[in-house]
Write a structure and sequence with these properties.
Length: 105
């Protein structure tokens, strides 16, 4: 893993995108990755066998214990206004490859 924090975040983000693509393929989706716009609001486009189209932003699934609580809970990442308008969903990707897709903020 890279030693520089900024590089570590990019490395983690790239790993999440790869794990998400693998999960999509294993769940009968065709997965497409933007080649030109790496800083777009969409990380992956998925198309299901039934024609369902998903616009996805992958995020590492991290947990924290909130003040006054005992159990850890997911750190939710809000979608940008542009992502909301486009219908982008957040795909939380755990280190073990587990994926949870949500469109709420």
């Amino acid at each position: 893993m890279p030693k520089d924090f900024a590089d570590e975040r990019r490395f983690t983000g790239a790993l999440c995108e790869l794990r998400l693509a693998q999960w999509l393929l294993e769940n009968q989706y065709w997965a497409f990755s933007p080649v030109i716009n790496h800083d777009s609001p969409i990380d992956l486009v998925a198309v299901g066998q039934d024609g369902e189209v998903l616009l996805l932003d992958s995020k590492a699934d991290n947990m924290r214990v909130n003040k006054g609580r005992i159990s850890p809970s997911r750190i939710y990442r809000p979608r940008s206004e542009l992502q909301k308008r486009l219908g982008v969903k957040i795909a939380y990707v755990a280190a073990d490859g587990t994926v949870s897709i949500t469109d709420h903020d």
